[in-house]
Amino acid sequence: MFEKVLIANRGEIALRIERACREMGIATVAVHSTADADAMHVRLADESVCIGPPPARDSYLNAQAILSAAAISNADAIHPGYGFLSENADFATMVEEHGFTFIGPTRDHIRLMGDKIAAKQAMKEAGIPCIEGSDGPVPDEDAAVVAADKIGYPVIIKAVAGGGGRGMKIAHSRDDVRSFYKIASAEAEAAFGNGAVYIERCLLNPRHIEIQVLADNHGAIVHLGDRDCSLQRRHQKVLEEAPSPAINQSERAAIGKIAVDAMRAIGYHNVGTIEFLYEAGKFYFIEMNTRLQVEHPVTEMICGLDLVREMVRVAWGSPLGYTQEDIRFHGHAIECRITAEDPLTFQPKPGRVASYHAPGGLGVRVDSALYAGYRVPPYYDSMIGKLIVHGASRNECLMRLRRALGEYVITGMDTTIPFYQRLLAEPAFVNGTYDVHWLGHYISGTKPGPG
Known about the structure:
With about 450 residues, this protein is an alpha+beta fold. The chain folds into three domains: about 5-105, Rossmann fold (3-Layer(aba) Sandwich); about 130-200, Dna Ligase, domain 1, CATH 3.30.1490.20; about 205-445, ATP-grasp fold, B domain (D-amino Acid Aminotransferase, Chain A, domain 1), CATH 3.30.470. Helices cover about 35% and strands about 25% of the residues. The protein has 15 helices and 18 strands. The protein has helices at about 10-25, 40-45, 65-70, 90-95, 105-115, 115-125, 140-150, 175-190, 250-265, 295-305, 305-315, 395-405, 415-425, 425-430, 440-445, and strands spanning about 5, 25-35, 45-50, 75-80, 100, 155-160, 170, 195-200, 205-215, 220-235, 235-240, 270-280, 280-290, 330-340, 355, 365-370, 385-390, 410. The strands form four sheets. An eight-stranded antiparallel beta sheet has the order 13-12-9-10-11-14-17-16, with helices on both faces. A five-stranded parallel beta sheet has the order 3-2-1-4-5, sandwiched between helices. Helix 4 (about 90-95) packs antiparallel against helix 5 and helix 7 (about 140-150) packs across helix 8 (about 175-190). It is globular and about 60 Å long. It starts with a strand and ends in a 7-residue tail after the last helix.
């Protein structure tokens, strides 16, 4: 097994990886910007290396600095976490070429799934249903209109090279396509360095459901169930739950098998998440994330596996040691992404944590790197923690979440804890009848809260 792993990330996910490595007897190296010198992941790692100033481009996105840190600390492998360089095929290539092991999928799979057009074609060939869309990138407004007319309105203009809602616009008419094309392309260029966009049919009331897969280097592949990520604000996930309350057991088994068969067809290794839109009993492929997901804890809670540990084992070359029939799912889990934001306007409000108390008790987990006195830096994503609860049923899970939110104390700064407390009073959420558009309407007041 690896003797030392460098973690090319920060915050709660860096701490999460450190914990898994420590339980495996593996030493850890934390990298950090000057803004994160007093961060919890730095304090708890066996070693730490400063890799640059606060801006991410000069530190956590600086591949050369990270590789230098791995070299001077004599690390064996690098775990990228999520975000930053986790889905950068060039970085994975550099890691391997410099003699380190990249803890994640192969660079070829990262590159394939990073190109949304190529990924869609590969999934079609592997037997996964896809949404109707343009055959490739649309080079200009006129081509975009032609494609949209052929597909039928509404359509979505989407970035070829990215996700997370950047470079994504919904068009209901030809005029919309012409208005949004340049905006979407410019956003995509700014976010991903690639302004290419394509057109896809827009489903009206879908759920966002994803399947977690895990594969070793010896041909064993399993799925670890589904997650419902339909509660989104501006295409960004806010709350996730597993399993989805929107699909039944036969649908769950069928889409899980489709996902496993597709991964076997492309020879996939390590963890991955296949994301779908689900509407009227049908699944449609959106994209595949070739990394650990922010919402991985809800899967861990219902299946009892440590996904980070499994990533490390697979990267080392160990076989899974279990089959699909060995995977057992228990109960229900929900994750709330706690952010340093105004709970009404969602404007980022980083600051100093005056006091901190995490909830506890049966079925409650908090993944966070906060502590009293810590100053949340303004340079990075506003997520400061994840509250995950598990119960024997969805109703028990909701009751436990309500209790845990009431215990969660973070003072000195605004957080979204009050937002989640309000959400738990909404019938559409409690009943599980929401879709991907519901939360946006609820927050903006353009639709009654119950949905």
